[in-house]
Amino acid sequence: MKRLLLLNGPNLNRLGQREPDTYGTETLADVINKVKAVTDEYQYELEHFQSNHEGELIDKLHETEGEVSGIVFNPAAYTHTSVALRDAIASITAPVIEVHISNVHQREEFRHHSMLAPVCEGQIVGFGTDGYRLAALGLLKKL
Known about the structure:
By secondary structure, the chain is an alpha/beta fold. It has helices at residues 20-23, 28-41, 54-63, 83-90, 130-142, and strands spanning 3-8, 45-50, 70-74, 96-100, 122-125. It has a single domain (3-142), classed as Rossmann fold (3-Layer(aba) Sandwich). The protein is 34% helix and 18% strand. Its EC number is 4.2.1.10. It comes from Halobacillus andaensis.
């Protein structure tokens, strides 16, 4: 089982168009290519999935149990609100790295708390889309 899951939450399908001053101009396809370069180097297969729906993200976490070695996850706004995603992450064995493009701790107060961080292996924030690459690299080195 040498597979990594790249999971993206709501509005990340609009990368490159949505608030470029905050999220940059790279697209989700660019992010996937960055992570794929890392997984290829480590001879891992990359699976990627994006949804604007909380239940679909939970279903994907459940479906990949035993199928992936680790998960790089940008839960987007669900980071701050979803006990259901927290419980889903806690229920699986694959380590999860939480990623955020912007530094959420420099933004609005409501973005400062992650419901998911306590059940994730680590968290990378504020490095733009390079954070995904860093998360994949860190996770694969740890595996």
